[in-house]
Amino acid sequence: VVPLVSTSSHNNPRETHTNNTTTGCCCSTSRQDEGKKLKWLHCTLYRNNMMNDTAAKTDTEEAHLGWTKKQGYILSGGGRAEELYTSDRGFPFVETDLPHYHILQGDTHATFRDWTSSKPSCDLVCGAWNRSLFVGGWKHSSHREERVYNVQTHNLFIDLRIPKSRELVLVPSLQKRGCTSLKDLTPHELCLYARQHVFSGFTVLESEKGRPVATRHHCIDWNFVGVSRPRPNKWWIEVDDAKHVSCWKEYAYATDDHGQHYYFEQWDRLKDGNPKVARLALRLSANPKKRKACGNNVDNDDDNDNNTCAPPAHQQKDGVFVLVGDHFNYMMSRKFTSSASTSTSLATILVDLVDMAVSAGDLETARSYLSIEAAHGTVSSGWKLDCAIPPWNEGTELSSIMNGPMVVHGSDIASCSIEWGGEIWDIYDCSFETIEKLKGYLAKV
User: Fold this and answer.
1) With contact defined as beta carbons under 8 Å apart, do 418 and 282 qualify?
2) Which ranges in 344-428 belong to alpha helices (H)?
3) Of residues 406, 327, 337, the one with CA closest to residue 367
4) In a 3-state reduction of DSSP, which class is residue 24?
5) What is the C-alpha separation between 318 and 330, in angstroms, rounded?
6) How far apart are CA 435 and CA 352, in angstroms?
7) pLDDT tens, position by position, 363-420
């Protein structure tokens, strides 16, 4: 707060009064009264400013806590998606189109692998993208409100979205206390932490009525807690230039009664987000002969290769890494502790589940569902992370987070695999023509 009254000697009312008493000035009493009034005004303004600052912080926190629900409102066209996206209105879909269908079936690895050869390449919107505008219903958001890094290869993708309000209502407190894990967060901070988003999976690109249309199938999803989204993650694509795409628009597959798409997003290519420079997509292998663990994602010291107590398919260990040009995203699935509840009967999305768990004092369950790790970074920075779900990971090199470099095994691209973080990863997409070029590129990680 900037004081309205200077504290220098020639303007300080108290000092002015003292000097005037010494000289016997006849106006000393009036100046003293004036000084009291100014001092009262100064204190009142200071108090009001402090109250305004508190109110502003409260408003920012309330906006942050409402961020996820606002995103859902926009995406559903103001809550009308289920009403508009129906067969009766000319927008049919089947159960296998739903974004979480294959997660619940436990067949994402087999299905995605088959699609790499049987489905068209998603080359039209391959790249690293920023979302400059998101509109639906009567609300919108933009790059001014959130940091978005959507890295799409020819098949796999990771879409990372973090509200900038997080840097105001959560990060300063975490930095002040030196927090480096979810166990360091207070119950209220866990609720604030839940308000962000990231998901990964496979994008299937097709054509309908002469227009490109994409359907995304998820394999790891921040918001998913066991209940599938009731409508496909399917949208039309409109590009600015089919030969040199620098930006494109994503339109909801269904339209309203006026023929308008009930939501749309504009995506702008990030600097150096060109797939012609470099392109790589990896996924944690599901092959038990390759994996060191059996796939059980419960954090238990007794885990071993003979453990047969596997969790539900959507709670098993998974990971995705995608790179296009200078940009990369990585994502690792949740780690459930043995004491965490995996029941999803109380909530259908993550923020509600975390809020309920915190209210019930079940912090282990809240932390387990918040344990997804994901981040964006650039190769040119030395593979450092600049935007991460756990904010304490920002500024850290990727190899430190994953406990080591990527090591390529094999003699050719078609059959090779990558060892990373004590696990084996399978290659889904790769622009490097030879194993030597891939090894040379990844040796810098």
Assistant:
1) yes
2) 350-359, 363-369, 398-401
3) 337
4) coil
5) 11
6) 46
7) 999 999 999 999 999 999 999 999 999 999 999 999 999 999 999 999 999 999 999 9
